[in-house]
Amino acid sequence: MKLFSFPVIKISKITQFIVLSCICLVLVVSCGTRQTPQANLSPGTPNAGDGRIAVGTTAKPRTLDPADAYELASLGLVYNMSDRLYTYEPGSTEIKPQLATALPKVSADGLTYTIPLRTGVVFHDDTPFNAKAMEFSIQRFIQNGGKPSFLLKDVVDSVKATSENELTVKLKKPFAAFPSLLAFSGTCPVSPKAYEIGSGKFQPNKFIGTGPYKLAKFGADSLQLDVFDKYWGEKPVNKGVNVQIFSSAANLFNTFRTGAVDVAYQSLEPTQIKSLDESAKKGDWQAISAAGSAVKFVALNRNQKPLDKAEVRQAIAAMIDRSLFNTRVLLGQGEALYSMIPTTFNVYQPLFKDKYGDANVDKAKQLLTAAGFSKANPAKVQIWHTSSAPTSSSVAQTLKAYADQKMEGMLQFEISPVESATFYKEISKGSYPAAVLDWYPDFLDPDNYVQPFLDCPKGSDAKGCEEGGSQTQGSFYYSDAMNKLIAQQRKEQNPEGRKKIFAEIQEKAATDVPYIPLWQNKDYVFAQKGVNGVQLDPTQNLIYKSIKK
Questions:
Q1: Distance, CA of 504 to CA of 493 (rounded, Å)
Q2: What percent of the chain has pLDDT over 90?
Q3: Phi and psi dihedrals of 191, rounded to 5?
Q4: Binning pLDDT at 50, 70 and 90, where does residue 48 land?
Q5: Rounded Cα distance, 508 and 512, in Å
Q6: What positions does the domain Solute-binding protein family occupy (predicted)?
Q7: Rounded to whole angstroms, what are the CA distances from 153 to 3, 148, 157, 214, 271?
Q8: Which residues lie closer than 8 Å to 357 by C-beta, 6 or more apart?
């Protein structure tokens, strides 16, 4: 997730997520008739009489400590066992109060946030929740130095309990998206009696928060979540959840087909998703899909020839055929994207489509000609991707094949795979002319799809970005005007005012083309017949408490 990212993006998070999102297009899906659930599958064996839900996944958590959790597998579990100050309605990117009782009161200078808190809330160990406990949890998140600590460390100047049920947070700089950041799962409160503040002092194998479930068991390949009987809010409609972690997508796929788990989520391959989706249409089970928050894109390095010419970058944007990617790479399981900001935000504007269209080969040739390229003098571009990401490989291969077929030799791509550690080390050094990447947001606000990619506090028109988000992402884009627009939207508290600024940002990004958006992901969950209430949170979390059978 910045992942999820204000300041400079943390590439390491992306690396972890790519493992969860990789696709194998040649996987052979075995076929068979649905069988009776096996009684010896534990704890994933559904039992209609006990009211518990069996969830199957391949996402293995590294830790359950919210101050160090920075992968989907860990954050999804923390999400279901915790509360945050703010949360999201399913299917919406708008935040609403959870442990807070209202949206923050913001000072005129945009630096001080005053947050009223709920009363009558207790942690899983019976410790009372109050402003002091929330102050402790945020301080711990920052000071313990976990993987996501920069999310608050780079933003928060101080946090203080100003009364029993009032928290006051002062920021280093204005940041209008701050309430959305407080909906990030890792910023949840934890019991001050069960945790301590100190660099590296984490509790990876336990969780004690205020949420609707408490951790009853944490094994190598399974977890048991029991309903917290003192939960302050609406209780889960089930009696608890058993999470079974499978060693491969194939095992998850086959186990779900036998009926041995109630719900299957993360991470099935596209061919498996297609197979299960087709069976769902026949009534064998249920398929639930939702627009995801992750995006796929190509970064173009303005410091490398021939991408130093805007016309070449624009030509590549014009020739991109997103429908081809969706058909060949995603098997129809994605949504074409024409801005780095996903369609789930009301500020989204499809300016890449407006300016370049899709598969606009004639426009691409015109732009290349204007830049001085021809059949005799082709523009040659190396495209790099991680060797561990089949989708990125397929994007590069498809792009090359399409250019070879349509561009009459004027634009030629060379594909260069490299192992992940080297890829993420070298991209920020400017080693790659072009690169295929994924982005998983840290928090749901358009800022998180803009600032980590386009902001550059240190750079120049001549040298490009020397330090900042665009340098880390490999585009080395620098624009003083863009820096000012990003700063403006971060200060602007009025939603309509921010929307106008984001429109200007997207317009400039589509003209300068430091990145080419390809698609946003679509999330799929499969549930057995008779299982109801299966929903996804906008941050890709499966919501446990609403599932019943």
A1: 17
A2: 84
A3: -65, 125
A4: low
A5: 6
A6: 94-459
A7: 15, 9, 8, 28, 41
A8: 318, 363
0.90 exceeded by pTM? no
Tell me the pLDDT tens digit for each residue of 425-437. 999 999 999 999 9
- Could you tell me which residues are beta bridge partners of residue 88? 95
Tell me the pairing of strands 53-57 and 240-245. Answer: parallel
161-189, pLDDT tens digit by residue? 999 999 999 999 999 999 999 999 999 99
458 and 316 together in one domain: yes
Helix (H, G, I), strand (E, B) or coil at 279: helix
Q: Which of 203, 230, 246 is the last residue of a domain?
A: 203
Mean pLDDT of the chain: 91
Question: Which residue type sits at 457?
Answer: P
| Domain span including residue 116 | 84-203
Strands of 317-410, DSSP E: 334-336, 379-386
Helices 495-512 and 310-319: crossing angle in degrees, nearest 10, is 100
Q: How far apart are CA 167 and CA 164, in angstroms?
A: 8
Domain's final residue, options 140, 174, 203: 203
CA–chain centroid gap for 123, Å, is 28
- Tell me: the pLDDT tens digits for 206-263? 999 999 999 999 999 999 999 999 999 999 999 999 999 999 999 999 999 999 999 9
Please say whether the beta carbons of 250 and 258 come within 8 A. Answer: no
Q: If you count them, how many residues does the chain have?
A: 549
Instruction: Please indicate, yes or no, if residue 38 is contained in any of the structural domains.
Output: no
* Nearest Cα to Cα of residue 299 among 171, 436, 398: 436
Closest to 460 measured CA to CA, from 474, 480, 440? 480
Written as six digits, the tokens of 109 are: 């200078």
Residue entry with tokens 């499978």: 246
Domain count along the chain = 2
Do 310 and 435 have their domain in common? Answer: yes
Cα(252)–Cα(59) distance, rounded to whole angstroms?
11
Exposure of 251 by Cβ count < 10 A (0-12 exposed, 13-18 middle, 19+ buried)? middle
